[in-house]
């Protein structure tokens, strides 16, 4: 009997390969095999039906629950929209430890006494800021630790460091991902270099009707692909940079090089009449580091609904970094408004009054300067109108514009192009390099 399911992924009949994959997962879970080998790698290229299969995995009857996780907020929302409840992997694995209020008070008193040199006071202030920041530890009593199975989608983004924490819970893990995508930055992939337990290779006929999927297949197979003009009715390939207005019509612009990102962000901000070097309320921004206590991950898109314009260059360094005492409060995360108060129906924004923002104005290819305030809990941000492909990974947008400038050679180049192309769910404008 074909395996079907209801819900947002309803009226979908699994293909024979998908059914075989589902049975392989079920057999692994219901035999001692999942004890000997607690990790099952389910891989598949774009268009092979991985997400559809997860809908069926969610209904496997286990004695304990199944927890679905993704590396990013955006990827979790994509699964939620498709009927598979998901959370970020960090929120599933860790719990917060509140700051030590007595130690905070002691340091405040010591700073107030002012019997120290300026350097000593600064060191105490950094210690105070570090104490104020929540710390996260593995949650051995949380939902993930009590689950019968942890499913990690977009697992190609997961590196070995995070995977070690996941494995330490002792819960069987189903890793689902696309082995053709880019590996994580400065870490080893838990998918690449490992033999998959199941590999979905057949692109569904419906997916092959999608020009974006067809183009990604040609890129992955390193076949010749069209150099200009329309490819189907949803992909256009051009040889020159579109107008700034065309750039702004895209839901997201994806590039390969930081200098291109900086240039295009400046161009689009000028068209939007943003004359200041700092962001304006409602402007698209992207987070450059994990700030789990705020619900922000590296690559999270956000807006601010209030901006303090008191910007200052950090002293003694090149004008690459701008700082301010506070930008006010978050307006949205990944396009979702900050949740409202149930009683008043008014937005209750996440206050950032005691957080400092370090504004990455030019480049994010170098490490922050030694005297930057990141140790004080600063949130690192930059403009998000144009972003790099690594930052885009794990997300998708209806209408995407890609500047075709792959980073690296050989497999790195086609992986970059494949990852960038498959960020588009409906329309793609591909601008050829040069």
From TrEMBL:
ATP-binding found in the keyword field: yes
Domain of life, source organism: Bacteria
GO molecular function: ATP binding; DNA helicase activity
Domain UvrD-like helicase C-terminal stretches: 384-431
InterPro entries named among the record's database cross-references: Coronavir_polyprotein_1ab, P-loop_NTPase, UvrD-like_helicase_C
Keywords: ATP-binding, Nucleotide-binding
SUPFAM superfamilies in the cross-refs: P-loop containing nucleoside triphosphate hydrolases
Protein name stated in the entry: UvrD-like helicase C-terminal domain-containing protein
